[in-house]
Amino acid sequence: MRIDIISVAPNLLESPFNHSIIKRAQDKGLAEIVIHDLRKFGLGNYKQIDDTQFGGGAGMVLMIEPISNCIKQLLVERNYDEVIYMTPDAKTLNQSTANTLSLKENILILTGHYKGVDQRIRDKYITKEISIGDYVLTGGELAAAVLVDAVVRLIPGVIGDEQSALTDSFQDNLLSPPVYTRPAEFEGMKVPDVLLSGNFPKIDDWRSNQAYKRTQQIRPDLLKDE
Ligand code: 6GU
């Protein structure tokens, strides 16, 4: 999968993609992530990329021309299955969206800043708008990093243990059950007997029950979704 990201703060995106599993995915050739600095497409000597909004009001708006020029240049090289705009005024990212995106070949992500982008960019180029939750970040970069992480880890071969991505919290709209490792007892705190029993059908049952109980307690809204 190829992921292009247009950003006004490319430095913010360096670290998240250059470590651990996402780095390994790129090293293995399973994902190619390329960041484009919008400033390079800025207008005039000052490389202007934003301006005050028509109609008045506080905050700067990302201008149409630099973004349009950047997108047009990228479209010369390839077509995109989705052109995604990261913005708080959109539907919230969930596992189902991540699953769907992980099957795509080419994705372009535009990260917003300030008051957002000129609406005409959204109208003309954007095929999907994504928020990562009901709170406001200073820019879309960290949100894009969250999206890319959630998507890339689902590409077959990225996570060693194939089972692992499939049994995540949310893959079945349930939170994960509690997990334990050695020692079996620490300062009087014991691991539930069932997990040490070797009775795997019973262990599966216990995990399902715990997952359901946890979901009911912490995220009852997930049980109502379907
Ligand atoms: Cl995608 N961008 C910004 N700036 N804030 C957010 C967000 C995105 N998602 C949640 N908050």
TrEMBL record:
Where the record annotates domain tRNA methyltransferase TRMD/TRM10-type, the positions are 1-224
The record, for Pfam families, names: tRNA_m1G_MT
Catalyzed reactions: guanosine(37) in tRNA + S-adenosyl-L-methionine = N(1)-methylguanosine(37) in tRNA + S-adenosyl-L-homocysteine + H(+)
One Gene Ontology BP term is: tRNA N1-guanine methylation
Identify the InterPro entries for this entry. Answer: Alpha/beta_knot_MTases, tRNA_m1G_MeTrfase_C_sf, tRNA_m1G_MeTrfase_TrmD, tRNA_m1G_MTases_N, tRNA_MeTrfase_TRMD/TRM10
Q: Which GO terms describe its molecular function?
A: tRNA (guanine(37)-N1)-methyltransferase activity
The record's note on quaternary structure and interaction partners says: Homodimer.
Task: State the name under which the record lists this protein.
Answer: tRNA (guanine-N(1)-)-methyltransferase
